[in-house]
């Protein structure tokens, strides 16, 4: 199981990556994160809500009011054009970060 501390800086990239394919609501985002990580990481609801609110305030996602199949109100989040650009930037940053950390983990000079 991956600790929340180890993955904290990457929650935004996870959410943005999921939203690049289709809008989603919070519970579905949490489920998708757990599913894609094959149970290695389960996001807390407070962490998820804080992240989507931060992404919304930054203009990277939009919140849309919708209705669930049962008729209850539901907030869907979708990626904005700025969010698509930010996702590309974050993916490049991730690759650079991973390369540096791998040098230490693998003992490369």
Plain-language structure description:
The chain has 109 residues and is of the alpha+beta class. The protein has one domain: Arc Repressor Mutant, subunit A, CATH 1.10.10.10. Helix content is 57%, strand content 15%. The chain is built from 5 helices and 3 strands, in the order ααβααββα. The protein has helices at 4-7, 11-19, 26-36, 45-57, 81-105, and strands at 24-25, 61-67, 73-79. The chain has a 3-stranded antiparallel sheet with strand order 1-3-2. Helix 3 packs across helix 4. It is globular and about 60 Å long. The protein starts with a helix and ends with a helix. The mean pLDDT is 93.
Distance between the termini: 29 Å
The Cα radius of gyration reads 15 Å
Q: Could you give the count of β-strands?
A: 3
Percent range of helical residues? 55-70%
User: CATH top level?
Assistant: Mainly Alpha
Fourth-tier CATH superfamily name: Winged helix-like DNA-binding domain superfamily/Winged helix DNA-binding domain
Mean pLDDT: 93
Could you list the spans in which at least 5 consecutive residues all have pLDDT below 50? none
Strand order of the largest sheet: 1-3-2
- The secondary structure category is alpha+beta
The main sheet comes to: 3 strands, antiparallel
Our count of helices gives 5
Strand content: 5-15%
Order of helices and strands: HHEHHEEH
């Amino acid at each position: 199981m991956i600790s929340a501390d180890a993955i904290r800086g990457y929650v935004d990239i996870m959410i943005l990556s999921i939203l690049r394919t289709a809008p989603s609501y919070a519970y579905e985002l949490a489920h998708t994160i757990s599913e894609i990580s094959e149970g290695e990481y389960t996001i807390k609801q407070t962490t998820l809500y804080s992240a989507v609110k931060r992404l919304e305030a930054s203009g990277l996602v939009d919140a849309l009011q919708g209705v669930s199949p049962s008729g209850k109100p539901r907030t869907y989040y979708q990626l904005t054009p700025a969010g698509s650009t930010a996702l590309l930037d974050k993916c490049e940053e991730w690759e650079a970060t991973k390369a540096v950390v791998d040098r230490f983990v693998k003992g490369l000079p």
